[in-house]
Design goal:
By secondary structure, the chain is α/β, with parallel strands linked by helices. Helices cover 31% and strands 25% of the residues. The longest helix has 13 residues. The radius of gyration is 22 Å and the shape is elongated.
């Protein structure tokens, strides 16, 4: 198992190209199951979760071709199995996204329940209730969801809570259902919009993506034959590198990004004292050597401040001027990075779902352990400003969501390298 060794204290500076969004690529790969022709997906990040999804699709008999630019051609006409085993689903909860497409197009699916998650419970009951309301016969036996349907029927679905994967799964199922489906209290995330755009390119009729009410007119068939669809840029990767530059007092220019998807994050970075300029597909941040100011925030579903950026801002507040409160409302167990940051000298107090962070003048390097994807990124950021050496263990979490993080940070001047255990 690899580790990251970081020597802190260098301001980051330079240009960086942002990768495609993992959280858009995963549902779109699942959505390709709906197509009667081969579809090509571009701007796919080279990540462990992508590899896992491709392995899952391959096991089902889906034909996959990857070219030298990492474009993935997906042809589901060769599918032989409708089974997603526990050993794959337990490593990546997004595997549940094959459920809706399989039932909608092939009339059956057997998908393992995802199980627990380090950052809190993320139940799939809304996925199952929605599919059942559309006419699927659903049962859960021996840890597996068994679903069958002759043809799903459109209906009105009111989600009890906002769920991104639930919205995506039900939207994909509704694309081939008979009649019209309305999804109320739908997730508004850009990745949901990207999936809707992809489905529409294949002939689906999805309306209202980006709002809390989706209307999907079911069609008889979808075909992505000849379609080449590029995934949108990763807004969380963009935000992470912007915070890294802000923490280190540096300057960064991100290319191949989308400033319009980062409004809540950019507002908070400006509040921290960053000078930010944006174009259509680039963002430039310059801290001019200044120490950031503390910023308080509260996470909530898009378009509010993203839970996936909470840990990174916690890290920045650790060395910022002043005291800030960070309130987590999306996941109940998402402060697991706090204990590790305290080992580095951070002054953080936890009160229920709120962290009270008082900035210190410096952190000190220490061996720390990653507990989830974004927590691991925040520990890397803390290591970039810490005095001495920091070793981040369990970095397989990072490899699930950040493409070549040590290479990209090295490109910006950081002293960071991957070492074997």
């Amino acid at each position: 198992m690899d580790k990251l060794l970081i020597s802190g204290g260098t301001p980051l500076s330079g240009d960086l190209r942002v990768s495609g969004a993992k959280n858009a690529a995963l549902p779109i790969l699942a959505g390709a199951l709906l197509s009667e022709g081969a579809v090509t997906i571009g701007n796919v990040p080279h990540l462990h979760d992508i590899t896992t999804t491709m392995e899952l699709l391959g096991r089902m008999g889906v034909h996959l071709v990857v070219d030298e630019k990492l474009n993935i051609e997906v042809d589901a006409s060769t599918i032989k199995s409708f089974y997603a085993p526990y050993e794959m689903v337990k490593t990546m909860r997004a595997s549940i996204l094959v459920l809706g497409p399989l039932v909608a197009r092939f009339g059956r699916a057997e998908v393992s329940l995802p199980g627990g998650c380090a950052i809190g419970t993320r139940p799939v009951n809304l996925h199952l209730q929605g599919l059942a309301a559309m006419g699927a016969d659903i049962s859960v036996r021996n840890g597996y969801i068994h679903a069958t349907a002759k043809r799903l029927k459109g209906c009105r679905l009111v989600l009890d809570q906002i769920t991104v994967t639930g919205t995506e799964n039900l939207m994909m199922a509704a694309a081939l259902a008979e009649g019209t489906t309305i999804i109320e209290n739908a997730a508004r995330e850009p990745e949901v919009v990207d999936l809707a755009d992809f489905l529409n390119e294949m002939g689906a009729k999805v309306y209202g993506a980006g709002t809390d009410i989706l209307e999907i007119e079911g069609v008889q068939a979808l075909s992505g034959k000849g379609l080449h669809y590029n995934i949108l840029p990763d807004r969380i990767e963009s935000g992470t590198y912007l915070v890294a530059a802000a923490m280190t007092g540096g300057r960064i220019r991100l290319k191949n990004t989308r400033p319009d998807l980062l409004d809540a994050v950019l507002i908070k970075l400006r509040e921290a004292g960053a000078h930010i300029d944006c174009g259509e597909n680039w963002i430039e941040l310059d801290m001019r050597g200044q120490r950031p100011k503390s910023v308080s925030l509260r996470t909530a579903p898009y378009p509010a401040f993203p839970t996936d950026m909470q840990a990174q801002f916690t890290a920045m507040n650790c060395i910022a001027e002043g005291t800030a409160t960070i309130t987590e409302t999306v996941f109940e167990n998402r402060f697991m990075h706090v204990q590790e940051m305290q080992r580095m000298g951070a002054n953080i107090k936890l009160e229920s779902n709120t962290a009270i962070v008082t900035g210190v003048s410096r952190l000190t390097g220490a061996p720390v352990m990653a507990t989830d994807l974004r927590a691991s990124a925040s520990l890397v950021l803390a290591g970039l400003v810490a005095e001495g050496q920091t070793i981040v263990e369990r970095i397989y979490h990072i490899d699930r969501g950040y493409e070549c993080i040590e290479e990209k940070l090295s490109q910006l001047g950081a002293e960071i390298k991957r070492i074997p255990s």
